[in-house]
Amino acid sequence: MSDFMRSGFNDSRVAVLTPRERDVMAYVATGKPNKVIAAELGVSQRTIEAHRARIFQKMKVRNAVELAHRLLAPANRQSL
């Protein structure tokens, strides 16, 4: 489970993400490049690109900055 999920983050859109998409989402939101994410997760860079595209679509964001903002916005936290 990613740190985002352990830290009390709550957004109904996250519920539709697969466990692997949640893992990738945590890396993307912290600014890791696809190449690094792929190496750390032991998959191809193309696989990460596909996960990233699905995450952006499901979370209704256009880029990693919007994703990080959505994840870290105080309104999306259960408790501060």
UniProtKB/TrEMBL annotation:
Domain HTH luxR-type: 10-75
InterPro entries from the UniProt entry: Sig_transdc_resp-reg_C-effctor, Tscrpt_reg_LuxR_C, WH-like_DNA-bd_sf
A family per Pfam: GerE
Keywords noted in UniProt: DNA-binding, Transcription, Transcription regulation
CDD domains per UniProt: LuxR_C_like
Lineage: superkingdom: Bacteria
Alphabetized Gene3D superfamilies for the sequence: Winged helix-like DNA-binding domain superfamily/Winged helix DNA-binding domain
PANTHER family xrefs: DNA-BINDING TRANSCRIPTIONAL ACTIVATOR DEVR_DOSR
Protein name: LuxR family transcriptional regulator
